[in-house]
Amino acid sequence: MRNTTSLAAALRRSARALAVITAVTLTTSLVTSLTLGFALAAAQPARAAETATAEAPKTALLIIDIQDFYYPGGALPLSAPEAAGANAARLLEKARAAGKAVIHVGHNAKAGREFHADVMPREGEKIVMKDEVNAFLNTDLQAMLQEAGIKRLVLCGMQTHMCVEAATRAASDLGYEVLVVGDACATRDLKSGDTTVPAAHVHAATLATLDRTYAKVVTVDEALAALE
C-alpha cells in the first residue's frame, strides 16, 4: 500500500514538474515571439526609408543649349523651339520649387549665346559653357554632378540630334540614370545628299535611338513627377 501511495505521490510530483516546465517554455516562446515582433516592427520604417531612397536617386535637371541663336532671328533657328523652350521652363520651375539641382549648359557661340528668357539662370544656379558637342567633354560638368551626389539626370534642350544626344550617351556611359524629356527638346531639318530629312523625323529617330538603350524617353508631365 505504501508503495502504491509513494508511486502516486511521485507521479503527482512529476506532473507538477512537467506543468512548470511547460509553462516556462510557453512563456519563453511568447516573450521571444513578442520581442521578435517588436524588432521587426521597428525595422520596417528603416526598410521603408531605405526603399524610398533606393527608388528616388538624387536628381538634377540638365538644360542643354536653350539659347537665343536657336530661336527665330537667330543664327540657326530650329523647328518649333518655342514649344520645347516652354516645356523646359515648366521643368525648371518645378526643379526650383522642389529644391533640385539645376545645371544650365550653353554653347560658346559667336552670336546669340545668351540663354533664352524662358530658362534664364538664376543667381547661384550652375552654368557650364562648352566648345564641344558633348557637354561632358573638356568641362567640369562631371565634377559638379559628383560633388552634388547626383545619380539621375532629367535632360532637355537643343538640338535633339546633336548636343542632347551627345550628353545623353555620355551620361549613360558614366553611370547616370537618364530621363530625356522628348517634348522639351527641338531640332531642325537635315540634308543628306539631295534628301531633306524633316525636323520631326530627325527628332523622332534620335529619341527612338536613345530610348531604352542610353535613356528613358519621357514626356514633360512624366518628368515633372520625377522632379518631385
Describe it.
- This protein is an alpha/beta fold and 228 residues long.
- The protein has two domains: 1-55; 57-226, Rossmann fold (3-Layer(aba) Sandwich).
- It contains six helices and eight strands, in the order H-E-H-E-E-H-E-H-E-E-E-H-E-H.
- The chain has helices spanning 2-55, 81-98, 141-148, 160-173, 199-210, 220-226; strands at residues 59-64, 101-107, 126-130, 152-158, 177-186, 190-192, 195-197, 216-218.
- The strands form two sheets. It has a six-stranded parallel sheet, sandwiched between helices. Strands 6-7 form a two-stranded antiparallel sheet.
- Helix 4 packs parallel to helix 5 (199-210).
Name the structural class: alpha/beta
Instruction: Provide the CATH top-level class of the largest domain.
Output: Alpha Beta
What's the CATH superfamily of the largest domain, by name? Isochorismatase-like
**Integer average pLDDT:** 85
Compact overview of the structure:
The protein has 228 residues and is of the alpha/beta class.
Secondary-structure map with pairings?
Layout lengths: L1 H54 L3 E6 L16 H18 L2 E7 L18 E5 L10 H8 L3 E7 L1 H14 L3 E10 L3 E3 L2 E3 L1 H12 L5 E3 L1 H7 L2
Parallel strand pairs: 1-2, 1-4, 2-3, 4-5, 5-8
Antiparallel strand pairs: 6-7
Helix pairs in contact: 4-5
Descriptive keywords:
2 domains; 6 helices; Rossmann fold; six-stranded parallel sheet; two-stranded antiparallel ribbon; alpha/beta; globular
